[in-house]
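ESCALATION

Customer reports they have been waiting on this structure for their group meeting. Please prioritize. Original submission:
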Amino acid sequence: MAHEEFLKQAGNDDGIIFCVKEEVEKFKRILIESSDVEQNIIIIKNIELFSNDIFDLVSTRQKLIISGDVNKAIFKEKILAKKYLTNILFSSLGNMDVPDLEKYEGFVMSETLQGKTTLHN
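Update from on-call: job pushed to the front of the queue and completed.
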């Protein structure tokens, strides 16, 4: 479902590797066997549903998008310990506080940007 929604919004999934709970073994196989996986963007949907080994497989990747409730992930501390170039949060997480947000708003934090962002149709 997440993959189909992404395709609907983005138009294609070139260079994207999705990780969803229903296809964990396929995802692991792709990461281990693919020679050009470093050039792809990895999206993990609903991070709170996964075990520690998935995060260990992707934690060194530079092109990583983690989606879901990080506060419920069993490896939350590992996620928070990783340095990301950009964070987009929808609620406070660890030592990263966000202001009050409206529906469909997020808070972007990077070295050069900080502020609210929103989805538009």
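Sent to customer with the following note: The two ends are 20 Å apart (CA to CA).
Escalation resolved.
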